[in-house]
Every structure is written in structure tokens, then in C-alpha cells.
Amino acid sequence: MLRALVTFLLFGVLLCTASAQTSPTASNRTQNLRDCLDGFGTCNHSLLTSEQAREIAKLQHDQNLWVCLSGNGECDHSALSPDESKDVAASEQRRNALACETTIGVCNQALLTPAEESTVVQIQKEQNRLNCETGESSCNYDLLSAAEATKVHQSERNHNLLRCQTEPELCDKSMLTSTEVKEVATIEYQRNLLACKADEGYCDQSLLSPVDAREVAAIQSQRNALACEAQDETCNESLSVIPQNVDAFRKEATDLRSAASNRK
Question: Residue 25: inside a domain, yes or no?
Fold first, then answer.
């Protein structure tokens, strides 16, 4: 009998202890309120007072409304009032139209109104025309009018001419007129001549006229003589030094060119 009484008393103590441990304390309620304010899933609404529950519900509603209106997050449309649903729908419509017009964001053309769709189509045509005129790979010639296609082809010819004049490796000479071919050839010759004189870039001496080749040889000889005098590592003592002054060769070349020009 005594043993049974002791067992019963111990069981009662354990029940009281467990009850005390599971009963929410003030600190637990405070932490729970904080969790509810922060929107954590650990929020236990049963631990809130009626006033706290109302304020938390209002806060969550306002937060959801902000998400719905701004599009920054997952909107719970079921929590909106009829008036709020109208405002959110209008906001989503404007946001979709903006995405379609600017190509920034997700565009759903099926949601556009007829007026919005007309505006978007016009913007896309203008953007395509600009892509074609500036040489963008996304150009779609099928969207161009006859007048626009003519203008685009002229822009392409102008761009190609500029490439031929400045970046020969990107030049398509088949697009040049006979006059442009001569102009580009002159520029290429002068570029090659300068490379030979300055000893910079790629110099093809086989393309030089006899007069220019003689002038380049004199410049290179004089430069080599200076390098040898300075005991520079670029000195090539095996090269014969042309005694004439390089200015004399330049004058001779100028005179010969002037005479050739006059004969024309």
C-alpha cells in the first residue's frame, strides 16, 4: 500500500512539472509575438491576445496588399477586398504593359488591351528598324517597309565603307562603288607606307612605289645608324648606311609625285 502511494505521488509531481514546462511563459509569448510580427512560420496565433491577433492580421493584410500592388513577391488574391482586387488588377495590367514596351521584365502579350498591343507592335517595329540601321544581328528585314529597307541598305553600305577605311579586316569590298574602291585603296596604301616609315604595325614593302620604297629604305638606314651609334640592341651593323639625308629623299619623292600629278 505504501509503495503504491509513493508511486502515485511521484506520478503527480511529474505531471505538474510537465505542465509547468509546457505552459507559455511571458518570454515565450514575447518571442511568439516577435515571430508573428516578422512573419515567421513559428508564429502561434493561439498565444496572442485578441488585440494582438487583430493587429497582426491587419499587418499581414497590408503586407500582402503591398506585394500585390508592387509585384514584389507572391500575391494572395483571395485575401483582397473587391476594391483592392480592382486596384491590383489595374496595377498588374500597367506593369505588364510596361514590360512589353520596354522588354524589361516578363511580358504576357495575351493580357494586353487592343490599344496597348498596338503601341507595343509599333515600338517593336521601331526597335527592329533601329537594329537594322545600326547593324544589330536581331534585325528582321521582313518587318521593314520598302522605304525603310532602302534606308537600311544605305546605312549598311555607309557602315561598310567606314569599316573599309578604318578596319580593313572587316571590310566587304564587294559592296563598294568603283570610286570608293579607289578611295579605300589610297587609304590602305598610305596606312602601309606609314607603317613602313614608323616601323609600327604590318609593313608590306612589296606594295610600295619605287620612290616610296627608296624613301623608306633611307629612313630605316638612318634609324639603324642612330641605333648603332647609341649601341642599342636593335642595331644591325650589316646594313649599309645610305649617306644622303632623309629629307632629301622626301623632297625628291614629293617632287616626283607633283610631276606625276601634273601629267594627269
Answer: no
